[in-house]
């Protein structure tokens, strides 16, 4: 997800590309003609689609209604055969039970960037990481230097997906860039772990050092009583101090976390915390304990997100070099910058450690006008295999196998050509997740894409069905799994 400063700047840049989305209506349409299997150095034309033979587009719904012109598409959560996709101006609810003909069910205008979403039952949690005049959906932008400005978590009742209702909001320090849902062990409450960062001395509600996260407790029977219940410090020593990497790019200092991914069944959480990759024990939901921390002060610039494998023996961390606003899929950056880092979890109990195994980066070069870097993805539930689908902004969607931690390999891909050949125009796929047999991608400019993966290596995943799916709250998956 885009870093503060970059995210606000890029919101304006995205306007030019979003004009293409206005051409669509509310129904899905077939993908245009494609060129399959280009070489690693071939750059497709503007909006031209290229893909491997085993991955194809089956539907697209452009941004429309209140989100047509300049709304940046963000993250996705799923419930009851519906995909809910955040935008910087609110969120869209899509019925995807027929993936060939997805349709918009409702649109909620609620500005506040970046509006990442997670779902628990009939509740939706929306992250606000842009200072606003108040916590309502009618708020306007307000400087974060103003003490009265608001940022945090909003809660909606989505029992009627056609008419979501605003329920409550909880303010958190430095806002909520992303959020991670963790159920309590009694089943009566859920906890929302809020990731936020980038403090500054002139921001009254975001003071340095901010080496913590915020935990919001939501009573499931009375979500209006949600409240901030803990602010545990993860980095009492301050974490990574930041600095320059060997190639001259800047390495981020640790000030909180960008993204947290929970594995509640194992009482584990993985933190991508700007300058640190972290393995966390959450057996006590309000007192998370750091088990192990790793740094990569040669190749990683910004630890962005994390994904466990199905057996909780590995974690894939992403490096969002350039904050999502740079063209880093270029020869000069090589295969280890702006890439994934694959780590294995060794040892037991409090002696568990993260051990580096390899990097993975898409094998196709992109142009100077395409923002491209490792971004959000999820596991594809294949027994005995570690296979992931992942977004790379304008690098497109990549499906790759890391069963052999030291030799990851791509098995499928799909991407559009650049939005412009004259200048860098931000766009591409923000999140790509597997849900109920298909890949769903939230494109920053182009809206919802639905892809069909037809490959013998992932065929068993076609039979997995889930009622609810949050990429940042993982559960062990297997054929026939239903939650």
TrEMBL record:
Superkingdom of origin organism: Bacteria
Keywords: Signal
Protein's UniProt keywords contain Signal: yes
Leader peptide range in chain numbering: 1-30
Designated name of the protein: LVIVD repeat-containing protein
């Amino acid at each position: 997800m885009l870093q503060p400063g970059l995210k606000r700047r890029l919101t304006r840049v995205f306007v030019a590309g979003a004009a293409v989305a206005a051409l669509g209506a509310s129904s899905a349409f077939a993908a245009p003609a494609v060129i399959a299997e280009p070489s690693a150095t071939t750059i497709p034309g503007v909006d031209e689609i290229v893909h491997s033979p085993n991955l194809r587009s089956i539907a697209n719904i452009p941004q429309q209604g209140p989100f047509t012109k300049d709304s940046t598409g963000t993250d996705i959560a799923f419930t009851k055969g519906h995909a809910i996709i955040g935008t910087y101006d609110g969120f869209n609810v899509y019925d995807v039970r027929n993936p060939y003909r997805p349709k918009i069910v409702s649109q909620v205008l609620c500005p506040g960037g970046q509006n990442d979403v997670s779902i628990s039952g009939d509740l939706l949690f929306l992250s606000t990481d842009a200072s606003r005049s108040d916590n309502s959906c009618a708020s306007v932008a307000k400087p974060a230097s103003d003490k009265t400005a608001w940022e945090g978590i909003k809660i909606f009742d989505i029992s009627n997906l056609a008419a979501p209702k605003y329920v409550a909001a909880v303010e958190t320090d430095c806002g909520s860039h992303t959020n991670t849902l963790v159920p309590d062990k009694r089943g009566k409450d859920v906890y929302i772990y809020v990731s936020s960062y980038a403090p500054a001395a002139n921001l009254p509600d975001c003071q340095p050092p901010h080496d913590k996260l915020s935990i919001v407790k939501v009573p499931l029977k009375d979500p209006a009583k949600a409240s901030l219940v803990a602010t545990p410090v993860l980095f009492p020593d301050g974490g990574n101090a930041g600095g320059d990497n060997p190639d001259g790019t800047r390495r981020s200092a640790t000030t909180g976390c960008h993204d947290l991914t929970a594995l509640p069944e194992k009482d584990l959480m993985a933190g991508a915390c700007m300058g640190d990759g972290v393995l966390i024990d959450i057996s006590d939901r309000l007192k998370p304990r750091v088990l192990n921390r790793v740094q990569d002060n040669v190749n990683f610039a910004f630890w962005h997100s994390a994904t466990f494998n199905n057996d909780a023996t590995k974690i894939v961390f992403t490096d969002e070099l350039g904050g999502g606003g740079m063209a880093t899929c270029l020869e000069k950056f090589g295969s280890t910058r702006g890439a994934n880092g694959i780590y294995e979890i060794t040892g037991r109990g409090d002696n568990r450690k993260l051990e580096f195994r390899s990097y993975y980066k898409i094998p196709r070069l992109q142009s100077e006008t395409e923002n491209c870097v490792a971004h959000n993805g999820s596991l594809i539930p294949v027994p005995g295999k570690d296979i992931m689908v992942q977004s790379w902004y304008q690098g497109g969607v990549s499906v790759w196998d890391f069963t052999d931690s030291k030799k990851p390999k791509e098995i499928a891909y799909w991407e559009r050509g650049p939005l412009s050949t004259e200048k860098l125009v931000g766009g591409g796929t923000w999140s790509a997740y597997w849900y109920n047999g298909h890949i769903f991608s939230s494109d920053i400019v182009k809206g919802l894409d639905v892809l069909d993966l037809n490959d013998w290596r992932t065929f068993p995943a076609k039979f997995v069905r889930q009622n609810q799916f949050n990429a940042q709250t993982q559960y062990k998956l297997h054929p026939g799994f239903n939650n």
